[in-house]
Structure formats: C-alpha cells, structure tokens
C-alpha cells in the first residue's frame, strides 16, 4: 500500500474533484478537510468520500460551480448559502465569520443552508478553538435514518454534534490541544450494519428496527427499517434538537426531505449546519475559563490512578496524536483507493 505525504494526498484529492467539475475553491477546501479527517483516523469521513463526492458532482446532486455567499446578518448572527455545492467552502466561510463576529460580539451563531454532507464536524470547531481561542459547537443534520420517539419511519438524521474547548499553554509554551468532542447520535454507524449484512452476521438488539417498527437482529431487515438513536428517547430528542437548529433557523431541508447519501442518484440534499462560537473573555474571563478547564482535566487524569494505562483519555487526544504522526510520516492508504483516486484525477 502506498504512503503519501498529506500535501500529496491533498493535491491528488483536489485534482480528482476538479476533474469531476468542482471549481478550485471547492476542490481545495474539500480535499483539505478529507485529508485532515483521514489523518485524524476518521477514515469514514476521509478519502473514501472522494469517489462518492465525484459521483454527486457528475450526476448533479452537488453543484461543482457553486460558491457560498453570506445572505443574511445581524450582529453576531449570519446565514451562509452553500448554493447546493459541497459543504466545505461554506464551512470555511462559516469558521471565518464565527471567529470575526465572536471577537466583536462575544458570541456568534453562523447558519449554513442549501448544504451537503459535512464530514467530520470536529474539524471546524477544533480550528476555532486552536487558532482563535474560542469555545465552539457545531451541528449538522443528515438524510433520515432514525425514527422519532414512538415512530418507526426514518425521519431524523444521525445528526452529529461536535464541540471544542481551548486549553492553557503547556510547559513548552504552546497551547495544549483543545478538548474535542465529536459524535453522531445513532447507536452505531450505519456502516457497521452494512458490514454485518455483507458478512452475513446478526447485529445486536438495540441497533435498529425493521420496516414494521420491530426490534431486529437481521442486518438486511435493519437496512430496510431504521437505525435507533443512542440512549433511546433521549438520543432521538437530541437528534430532533439538531434538526430544528440546523433547518428551522436556516431554511434548510429536514432529513426526511433529503435522499440518502448511500445512493448516487437522488435530489440535492439542501442540508443545514449551525456553528456557535463563544469568546471566554466575554464571560468569566479567559484566564478563569482556562483555569477551570485545567482543573477538570487534572481531575479526569487523576481518576486514572490504578486503572489500566490509557483508561482515561482526553477527548480529541487520540485524533490529535494520529494527525501529528501523519504530518510527520505521511499516510498509508489502501492500494484500491489510491488507484481509484488516480483514475479520477487522470480523467481530467
């Protein structure tokens, strides 16, 4: 399997997307985000998405010529129209607007409408925490996969939530990596059910229901039914909260109005994202905030006494370590994926 530098992988992914119709800002922003996710060990939102996005660009599910635009603003609030393009240029603009408005107003809420698959939501919040010292939260809805409480028809997406909290400078003088929390709201990723179906394995009860709304251990029946939210009703209500934040405020499409990303043909999803940024200096003060964060971190790590090594791990630490190693050593990618990316890039 080939090993490539992150810069080479970005260039390859960018060329592949451009060959399928993405304008340079879209191809570059998307390639950078996918490689960053791959480097952090989030391969489900990494380079394997390039062929999927390429298909969406070719069949019109995403507009490769779209450039995001700021269409509404008031104080710390703003709305960005992704114009049915891939999500990453709009998210890049959202990060910039969030940083600028939070610095001025103490808090900023940036919505994105008419958007697409947004990948690893931990990336934009980590950037706001690391580069700007802001507390940041990000939300996105996604095509319907889960029922509302008491229902059995998929209405809600798995609707990831991410948050990042900056940390105080360490003994070396540079800030410690922010705490980054990034999770989807389904009990498991749909990919695990698809893998079980391919391998003919049963799935645990509690992962999904069949089309009649009954619990199932049959992965094929689960794929024809609906995934279940983590934590049951509580997780489903969190998914509903994300749906309302990302769509009702922005005018974006709800999850049940967007066709699945697991098929190439379908509508333009018109999904929504929301990015909240908070300047700690506007509240108890930056110094107090950092003191409080480090007090909690110290208590968490102290709780590891007597536990197995690594039993207590700070959220985001593993991804940051993997990204650092990838930056220094490059990334190994499967030969089949490399060949696929080369074929797309060389088709230009």
What does this structure look like?
The chain is of the alpha+beta class and 348 residues long. It folds into 3 domains: 1-59 and 317-348, Hypothetical Oxidoreductase Yiak, Chain: A, domain 1 (Orthogonal Bundle), CATH 1.10.1530; 67-184 and 232-284, Malate/L-lactate/L-sulpholactate dehydrogenase, NADPH binding domain (Ribosomal Protein S8, Chain: A, domain 1, 2-Layer Sandwich); 187-228, Hypothetical oxidoreductase yiak, domain 3 (Wheat Germ Agglutinin (Isolectin 2), domain 1), CATH 3.30.60. The protein contains 11 helices and 11 strands. It has helices at residues 6-19, 24-39, 49-59, 88-105, 122-132, 190-199, 219-223, 233-248, 286-302, 317-329, 335-346, and strands spanning 3-4, 69-74, 77-81, 107-115, 135-140, 161-165, 179-183, 208-209, 226-227, 271-278, 331-332. The strands form 3 sheets. Strands 2-3-4-10-5-6-7 form a 7-stranded mixed beta sheet, sandwiched between helices. Strands 1-11 form a two-stranded antiparallel ribbon. Helix 1 crosses helix 2, helix 1 runs parallel beside helix 3 (49-59) and helix 1 (6-19) packs across helix 11 (335-346). The longest helix has 18 residues, at 88-105. The radius of gyration is 20 Å and the shape is globular. It starts with a strand and ends with a helix. The mean pLDDT is 93.
């Amino acid at each position: 399997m080939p090993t490539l530098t992150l810069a080479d992988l970005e260039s390859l992914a960018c060329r592949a997307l451009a060959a399928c119709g993405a304008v340079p800002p879209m191809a570059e922003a998307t390639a950078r985000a996918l490689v960053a996710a791959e480097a952090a060990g989030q391969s489900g939102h990494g380079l394997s998405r390039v062929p999927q996005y390429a298909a969406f660009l070719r069949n019109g599910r995403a507009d490769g010529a779209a450039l995001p635009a700021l269409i509404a603003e008031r104080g710390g609030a703003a709305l960005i129209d992704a114009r049915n393009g891939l999500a990453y240029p709009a998210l890049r603009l959202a990060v910039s607007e969030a940083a600028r408005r939070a610095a001025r107003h103490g808090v900023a809420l940036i919505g994105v409408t008419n958007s697409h698959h947004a990948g690893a939501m931990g990336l934009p919040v980590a950037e706001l925490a690391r580069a700007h010292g802001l507390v940041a939260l990000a939300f996105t809805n996604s095509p319907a996969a889960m029922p509302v409480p008491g229902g059995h028809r998929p209405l809600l997406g798995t609707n990831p939530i991410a948050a990042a909290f900056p940390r105080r400078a360490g003994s070396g003088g540079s800030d410690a990596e922010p705490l980054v929390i990034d999770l989807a709201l389904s009990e498991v990723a749909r990919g695990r059910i698809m893998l079980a179906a391919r391998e003919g394995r049963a799935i645990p009860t509690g992962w999904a229901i069949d089309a009649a709304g009954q619990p199932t251990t049959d992965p094929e029946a689960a794929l024809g039914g609906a995934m279940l939210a983590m934590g049951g009703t509580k997780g489903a209500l969190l998914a509903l909260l994300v749906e309302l934040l990302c769509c009702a405020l922005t005018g974006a499409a709800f999850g049940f109005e967007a066709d699945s990303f697991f098929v190439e043909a379908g509508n333009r999803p018109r999904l929504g994202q929301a990015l909240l940024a908070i300047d700690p200096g506007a509240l108890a003060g930056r110094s107090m905030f950092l003191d409080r964060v480090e007090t909690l971190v110290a208590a968490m790590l102290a709780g590891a006494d007597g536990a197995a090594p690594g039993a207590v791990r700070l959220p985001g630490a593993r991804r940051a370590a993997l990204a650092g190693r990838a930056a220094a050593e490059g990334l190994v990618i499967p030969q089949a994926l490399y060949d696929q990316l080369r074929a797309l890039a060389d088709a230009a």
